[in-house]
Design a protein that fits this description.
The structure holds 2 protein chains of 2 kinds. By secondary structure, chain A is mainly alpha-helical. Chain A contains 4 helices and no strands. Chain B is mainly alpha-helical. Chain B contains 12 helices and 2 strands. The longest helix of chain B has 25 residues. Classes of the chains: A mainly alpha, B mainly alpha.
Chain lengths: 123, 284
């Protein structure tokens, strides 16, 4: 092991392959979620029914099943919010293949935190 | 105002804030929340949840761009995200239980606190600071955080990252502020990476853009699963800000941003004072 702050040359350990994949993944997520949100909003505007406030994760499935435009909007928002999570999951898989133990642990922790955010919110 | 008018106005306002935000190097949130509460009369508790969703949208775009341009230190980002994501959740939970007045006052305080950091960015921390040699557990060399980037003249510059433990603690705070106030939190992340960890400005901004998606989505997922996200206002703001940011990025090199930052600092003071007055009941 190199002594901290003593020998360590400024070596660059950039996960290059991952850095090619991440922008594509983020853009795809943003594009798909924007399309869903825009379509849902336009649909809602044309239907003219006033939306009755916010809904939670449990309502989302019900709204989608009932062909409610708010379901489409909600799905778009959920996709948007899960895009960073997908980026973390992709990073975890990459580091797992590299057998990079430290970064497996770091990305797994972040992934668990994001899953916990959903779980804690629905409690 | 009827809901449709508010939604249409919000679309216009969020395009504008996205545009201005990218010119100023600020995420949309710092402008969006005050404009929503002060100009559109939206309750700040609703505005914060709407804004954090919009922040996820903009940062997804700017994060992708930063990684593609090679100015985001992805390892550093993933390391600090451990703290910002936890902070984001904590901030969101606190906000869910805070009253309107408390949030208004906190946002006003945050606006005033941010001004000096906007006007005068911190100097880069000197290499080999005190903690770097002591901190064996979180040694930068073990974390492999050092990197290189291309500066304005096209020269390859390398840098080493200092004080990861302190940086991690401050990043937790950045996450709390982001989740609590519905902002990206770059205003804490960038000074932390530059002033404490010794990361060059360009890389600090790029890495902050990269990290904001995870920070904001941790908070936004709490708001969303709690049913606190308005299903019309949030997607409207998200689409508007993304659109505005896109155009702002094209103009970025053409304006003198120092003057813009100074003008904006004055506006921030006015917004902060208005929020205090609103909390006190002097303003409606």
């Amino acid at each position: 092991m190199t002594g901290p702050g003593l020998v360590a040359p400024p070596l660059d350990d950039r996960p290059q392959e991952l850095e090619v994949r991440i922008p594509k993944l983020l853009r795809a997520g943003l594009l798909a979620s924007s399309a869903l949100m825009a379509a849902g909003l336009v649909w809602l505007a044309f239907r003219g029914a006033p939306p009755d406030g916010a809904f939670d994760l449990v309502d989302l499935g019900r709204l989608l099943a009932a062909a409610d435009p708010r379901g489409v909007i909600g799905l778009g928002m959920l996709l948007l919010l899960l895009t960073p999570l997908a980026r973390v999951a992709a990073s975890l898989l990459y580091f797992a293949r590299q057998r990079d133990r430290l970064y497996i642990a770091l990305t797994a922790t972040v992934l668990c935190t994001l899953v916990a955010a959903v779980a804690l919110g629905t409690v | 105002m009827d809901p449709l008018t508010v939604a249409v106005l919000l679309l216009l306002v969020s395009v504008l804030t996205g545009f201005l935000g990218s010119l100023l190097g600020l995420g949309g949130g710092f402008l969006l929340v005050p404009v929503m509460t002060l100009a559109l009369g939206i309750d700040i508790r609703v505005a914060v949840a709407v804004s954090i969703v919009a922040v996820v949208a903009t940062s997804t775009g700017s994060g992708a761009a930063s990684v593609r341009r090679g100015i985001a230190n992805t390892r550093l980002g993933m390391f600090l995200e451990v703290a910002t994501a936890l902070g984001g959740i904590a901030g969101a939970f606190v906000a869910l239980y805070l009253g309107r007045e408390a949030l208004l006052v906190l946002f006003g305080v945050a606006l005033l606190t941010a001004i000096p950091f906007l006007l005068k960015p911190l100097r880069a921390a000197p290499p080999n600071g005190a903690m770097a040699a002591v901190d064996n557990l979180l040694a930068p060399s073990r974390l492999r955080l050092s990197g290189h980037f291309e500066d304005e003249k096209g020269n390859l510059r390398t840098y080493t990252v200092q004080r990861p433990a302190l940086g991690l603690s401050l990043s937790w705070f950045a996450g709390v502020v982001a989740g609590l106030l519905g902002i990206g939190g770059g205003i804490v992340k960038v000074p932390t990476m530059r002033g404490v960890m010794g990361v060059p400005m360009k890389v600090a901004v790029g890495t902050s853009n990269f990290m904001i998606g995870v920070t904001a989505s941790a908070a936004a997922l709490v708001y969303f699963s709690r049913g606190a996200v308005d299903p019309v206002l949030a997607p409207t703001a998200a689409l508007g800000v993304v659109l505005g940011t896109r155009y702002g990025a094209r103009f970025m090199d053409r304006v003198e941003s120092r003057d813009l930052v100074r003008a904006f600092a004055a506006i921030m003071v006015v917004m902060a004072l208005s929020m205090f007055f609103k909390a006190a009941g002097v303003l409606p």
